[in-house]
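Posted in: Protein Modeling Q&A

I'm a second-year student putting together a small comparison for a lab meeting, and my supervisor asked me to include a predicted structure for Helix-turn-helix transcriptional regulator. I've never done this before, so apologies if this is the wrong subforum. The sequence is pasted below exactly as I got it from our records. If anyone can share the structure token output, I'd also love a short note on what stands out.
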Amino acid sequence: MNDDERVSPAEREKINFEIDLIGKLIEAREQKGLSQRELAELSGVKQPAIARLESMKTTPQIDTLFKILNPLGYTLSIVPLKSDAIDNRI
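Accepted answer (user: helix_wrangler)
Welcome! Here is the predicted structure, written out as tokens:
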């Protein structure tokens, strides 16, 4: 049995979303030329928490994401799913 057979489609979607989200967060931090420590100072979120988030050892609370994303010039938003993603859920 491989990993895809052990993980439900919904769980796989959640994992892929987290990987994408964290990847974009790291990319935004690096584009700003900030270290984790500098981002911690700007966001008010402790550096070890940022490190755990970036290494996917923890799932962040929404308010923590807002605190981290704000100094990077980003925010969260809700967007519609692509129609094929909706069709696959039915």
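A couple of things worth pointing out for your meeting: The two ends are 25 Å apart (CA to CA). The CA atoms of residues 28 and 77 lie 16 Å apart.
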